[in-house]
Design brief:
Layout: E1 2-8, H1 10-13, H2 21-33, E2 38-44, H3 48-61, E3 66-70, H4 81-86, E4 91-92, H5 94-105, E5 118-121, E6 124-129, H6 133-157
Parallel strand pairs: 1-2, 1-3, 3-6
Antiparallel strand pairs: 4-5, 5-6
Helix pairs in contact: 2-6, 5-6
Amino acid sequence: MKTGRVTVSDRASAGIYEDRSGPEIENVLREVFGAVIHFVPVIVPDETPLISAALRQLADEQRCDLIVTTGGTGISARDVTPEATRAILEKELPGFGEIMRGQSFAKVKTSILSRAVAGTRGCSLIVNLPGKPTAVRECLEILAPAIREVIAHLRSEDPHTQPTR
């Protein structure tokens, strides 16, 4: 499975802050889906055009099965990941954000402030996650069955993954 992981952070993209959430995405996905995952890591600042461009490139050119973002889903002025994601989605899957917020609420009452979205572009599933490593783990574990199902469905419709006749 080819997976893009996009860390959205002004500080991490400038080298001021160590990206811990991006590597956590890799750790959790390897645990959940097995070791046969090729990751394409990207770090971008909190800028809508740069986030959208990274997502388009991972979906359209890299043809990633899964693209997971971390960071930029809150309510501050610089949190623009959901807007950048919606701008390039073909189909939104609101259940992903709903279940993340709902399940996380039992532990963290402020999880309802997350604006994370998910959806598809071509044969790629794109999922926004919060920026904290603990939240990355919690959310990916909750979403794993749905991620597996969406990827299987998208692959079955992708002419590039169909056997030639």
